């Protein structure tokens, strides 16, 4: 639901919904059959109702309501470091969501697998909603995993540095798993191959493929085998007099399961190494943090869309460069600098997912043209494509 201040004002959910719509359209063009891609959204107890209200308010962004299924994960009690259960109120146990690995229990208790069976679904793409670049139901990823005969798969990116705070996909005792960065020694993290590349380089981005049969096996046979991970957190509680306490340092433990802990149960696991700049830019922190903020997410999308336009034959000229011997200072109604950029180096370029899922379909609109940012390429309510931006007369 978060708005990262794109020119369009679109939220992460809207961007993702429109990617589904575009993929349905592309699928129909290829197959000649009406395509339907159901979207299952797992929320916490606290976010389920706001999420439902948000989608109702926006009419599901053009998707069919029956194809957007919102379900809730479970919670687990919070504990002190010596194992005592914390109270949120005198009459209420403090609880927290059971992690993204709570997906498997929720799939069972919410009858999601039965719903998938009823729809004839055989393959599933699971991802974290905070990634602004995520390619929902990526047909290339699906095709790769299916061609490999995989029952479980993961997209990975090359680690930016040996000590980057991401888990690593690797084999442990013959089974694939994700080893968290906190569990890897610096010496191991810095180990390199003969060609200089990192030995443990496959950064996990929480972007996975599953067959429905694999999910059924996890839910029915292995869910109880998934371990709980301890997260030290600041947990609101009460004192001995029943007065609320808001701790400033971690005061207890939350128990979580991780979605990737099922990798060990895969009979055939596939890994797809993707380009970070094309597929991974998470939103995890507020503005002011050093990374993974609304600004870094927004800039990542601009850079990807710039690549889309350039690959389709378009070019860019910053508006403070000279055009016909004169400096052009044109700025659209965006809060951007005089060179049409959101920051010093990144021009504002937004391509609606309704126009292009992954860069396709742009050539007839941009080839041979030189644009002065900001540039937006959108689709009108009548289905027409609108290119809004100044074109250089050079």
Protein model, in words:
The chain has helices at 12-31, 48-57, 103-109, 112-119, 139-147, 186-189, 212-222, 276-279, 294-311, 363-366, and strands at 39-43, 68-72, 75-77, 87-89, 92-93, 95-97, 123-127, 152-158, 168-172, 175-179, 202-211, 229-233, 237-238, 244-245, 252-256, 269-273, 315-316, 322-323, 326-327, 349-351, 370-379, 385-391. The chain is of the alpha+beta class and 394 residues long. It has a four-stranded mixed β-sheet with strand order 7-11-8-16. Strands 17, 20, 21 and 22 form a four-stranded mixed β-sheet that branches. Helix 3 crosses helix 7. The chain starts with 11 loop residues before the first helix and ends with a strand. Mean pLDDT is 92; it is low at 322-339.
